[in-house]
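Reminder to self: C-alpha cells first, then the designed residues, so the page reads top to bottom the way the pipeline ran.
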C-alpha cells in the first residue's frame, strides 16, 4: 500500500459482523512467557506505527466492537466512522494490563488528556454516539440491517477525498502529523517544506488552469 501510487485512500473494515476488532486473544496471550509477551506487543506497536505512517488518508469503519488493540488500530487511522451501536474502549486495565500499541499516546492526542485518562483508568466501553460527542470519531451513523453502516459512510467519506490532488493530500497529512509533534514555529517550517514540494507538481498547475477555465480539475498525482 505504501508504495502503490494508485492507492489514494485506505479504509479499514472487518469481515466479521458486529466486530471491528476485539483486540488480542487473551487465551493465546496467557500461554506466552514474559519475553514472548514483550515481543508480541512490540510487533503490535510496530504494526500500528506502520498504519499511522501510511502516506495516504486512512479511515476506520467501526461497525461493532473495537476493544483494546482494536481501538488502538482505529486510533492509528486518520479518520474514524462508527455505527451508533458500536462499542469502543481501551479495556486493558480491566485485565491487569495497560494499552501497549499506542493507546496511551494516540487517545489523548485525539480526545484530550483528561478524557483519555478517564477512559484508560476505568477501562470503560462507550458507544458510537458517545465517541462522537467526545471527538473520538468523525462521524456516527445508525446501524443498518446489513451491519455495515459505518463502512458505507466511510466509503462516502473516501469518495470525497478521491477527487482531490493526491500529492497535495499526502503533503497535507505529512504536515499535520509532523507539525502536531512540535511547537508552532517549527510546525510552520514543516508546512513550508511540504508546500515547497507541492509547488512544482503538475497537479498544482492543473488546479490553477482548471480554475481559470472554470472546469473540474483532472489530477494525476504528479
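Designed residues (222 positions):
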Amino acid at each position: 500500500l505504501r508504495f502503490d501510487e494508485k492507492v489514494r485512500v485506505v479504509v479499514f473494515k472487518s469481515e466479521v459482523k458486529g466486530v471491528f476488532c476485539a483486540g488480542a486473544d487473551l487465551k493465546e496471550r496467557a500461554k506466552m512467557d514474559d519475553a514472548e509477551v514483550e515481543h508480541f506487543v512490540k510487533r503490535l506497536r510496530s504494526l500500528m506505527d506502520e498504519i499511522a505512517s501510511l502516506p495516504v488518508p486512512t479511515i476506520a469503519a467501526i461497525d461493532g466492537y473495537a476493544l483494546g488493540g482494536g481501538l488502538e488500530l482505529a486510533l492509528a487511522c486518520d479518520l474514524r466512522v462508527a455505527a451508533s451501536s458500536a462499542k469502543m474502549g481501551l479495556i486493558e486495565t480491566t485485565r491487569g494490563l495497560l494499552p501497549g500499541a499506542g493507546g496511551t499516546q494516540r487517545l489523548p492526542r485525539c480526545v484530550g488528556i483528561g478524557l483519555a485518562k478517564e477512559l484508560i483508568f476505568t477501562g470503560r466501553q462507550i458507544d458510537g454516539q458517545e465517541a462522537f460527542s467526545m471527538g473520538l470519531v468523525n462521524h456516527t451513523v445508525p446501524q443498518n440491517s446489513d451491519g455495515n453502516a459505518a463502512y458505507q459512510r466511510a466509503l462516502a467519506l473516501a469518495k470525497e477525498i478521491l477527487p482531490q490532488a493526491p500529492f497535495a493530500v499526502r503533503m497535507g497529512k505529512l504536515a499535520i502529523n509532523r507539525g502536531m509533534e512540535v511547537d508552532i514555529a517549527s510546525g510552520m517550517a514543516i508546512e513550508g517544506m511540504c508546500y515547497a514540494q507541492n509547488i512544482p507538481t503538475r497537479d498544482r498547475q492543473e488546479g490553477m488552469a482548471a480554475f481559470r477555465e472554470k472546469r473540474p480539475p483532472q489530477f494525476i498525482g504528479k
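The chain has two domains: 10-162, 166-213.
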